Amino acid sequence: MSYIDELGQQAKKASLNLAKLATAEKNQILRQAAANLLAQTDDILAENARDLASAKEHGISEIMTDRLRLDLARIEGIAEGIRQVADLQDPIGQVVRGYTNLDGLKIVQKRVPLGVIAMIFESRPNVSVDAFSLAFKTSNAIILRGGRDAINSNKALVRVLRETLSDFGADANAVQLVEDTSHAVAEELMQAVDYVDVLIPRGSSRLIQTVKEKSKVPFIETGVGNVHIYVDESADLDMAVKIVINAKTQRPSVCNAAESLVVHEKVAQDFLPKLETAISQVHPVEFRADARAQAIFKESKPANQEDYAREFLDYIMSVNIVDNIDEAIDWINTYSSHHSESIVTTDIRSAEHFQDNIDAAAVYVNASTRFTDGFVFGLGAEIGISTQKIHARGPMGLEALTSTKFYINGQGQIRE
Fold it and tell me: β-strand 106-113 against 95-100: which pairing, if any?
């Protein structure tokens, strides 16, 4: 029996055991898990320090290292995310609809768990806890495969979760960590159709592409964010500067950070110098611009076609000037990864036109794209941000981790 077969069998058994837990029991376990994580902060940070030291040895950039770093505030945020999930309504058992058909059969459609979820993710160790809390609340077992760079942090976090489950007499295999971080084992997990009901990859475009090519398990595409901000001709330029700076520089290593800027030609001459001056006071940003924008910036580099579609995850931003809002919409829809897009405008018709016609999971008016987050949206933690057009789109909370089942009750009916 292979390593993944063993984990899969244990997860399958755990998923059946989870169905026996009442909502109150699940909530109690989640709240205790949050408390236990806080109580073991020092141990978790010590393991995280090992990962950070290894990242430094391997020359990982500071921006990418930030995704890996844990501190007291981030652990408190992780614990708060668990508590939020515990406070949310449990969707399992909810009646989606109920009716009596023409044959007199009483038919009820209810929400049920997916079963076993596998998650492959990179760098960010908080994902292991976020994913567990959502999966557990919806009575799903989860197999986690994090990146090599966060292995010690993930081990420490999952150890606390498993110990909490065991303390309550619940099946600790409701959450399992793949400790072999080789690509071969990851690919085996992608093909574990006998055990895994759905796979959720969360990470780089390379990871997502690998899953597309190798996975036999149904998967939900998440995460890659070529995020745009469009500054309309009627925009409040001071507001636009504030929004662009926040969306680009607050945390450039995350998927809801802005990567691309689109500007109406009527405001470009005023806006771009204003932005360039203001953003340099926060953090230098390399602008890769089209010819018209280059003529306005004091410093920029010429953009190539690949730059317009790239998720930089760095202090780099592509810039394009357009003649009207429809050109902006066409441009964004061409290069978008369908994650999050924003317009800055004072024209309500432009705002509505933009939101109606942009093809993305989250479309903002006069706000930073950094808000695309399950925690911020009131979903508690999130297991990922779906960029697909399936049952789940945008930040994936509890309902996204459920399926439905039909319950049919009769009185001896047969079909003629």
Answer: antiparallel
Q: What's the pLDDT score for residue 271?
A: 98
As a whole number of angstroms, the distance between CA 135 and CA 383 comes to 8
Nearest CA to 328 out of 269, 264, 267, 234 is that of 264
Contacts of 13 (CB under 8 A, 6+ apart): 171, 173
Residues in contact with 95: Cβ distance below 8 Å, sequence separation at least 6, in sequence order:
108, 109, 110
CB neighbour burial string for 310-347, b if at least 16 within 10 angstroms, e if fewer: bbbbbbbbbbbbbeebeebbebbeebbbbbbbbbbbee
Judged by DSSP in three states, 144 sits in: strand
Residue 224 is predicted with a pLDDT of: 77
pLDDT in tens, 302-343: 999 999 999 998 999 999 999 999 999 999 999 999 999 999
Distance between CA atoms of residues 61 and 149, nearest Å: 12
φ/ψ of residue 107, rounded to 5:
-115, 125
Determine the pLDDT at residue 207.
87
For 296, residues 6+ apart whose C-beta sits below 8 A from its C-beta are 268, 269, 272, 273
One-letter amino acid of 71: D
Query: 144 forms bridges with which residues in the sheet?
Result: 119, 177
**Dihedral of the alpha carbons of 50, 51, 53, 55, in degrees to the nearest 10:** 170
Task: Give me the pLDDT at residue 380, please.
Answer: 67
AA identity, residue 321: I
3-state secondary structure of 337: coil
**Strands 385-386 vs 394-395: parallel, antiparallel or unpaired:** antiparallel
Place of tokens 């994913």: 131
Q: How far apart are CA 111 and CA 91, in angstroms?
A: 6
Environment class of residue 406 by beta-carbon count within 10 Å: exposed (0-12), middle (13-18) or buried (19+)?
A: exposed
Predicted TM-score (pTM) of this structure: 0.85
Helix (H, G, I), strand (E, B) or coil at 414: coil
List of the chain residues with pLDDT < 50: none
What confidence score (pLDDT) does residue 385 get?
85
Spatial neighbors of 378 by CB under 8 A, at least 6 apart, are none
Which amino acid is present at 313? Answer: L
Question: How far, in Å, CA of 259 to CA of 101, rounded?
Answer: 52
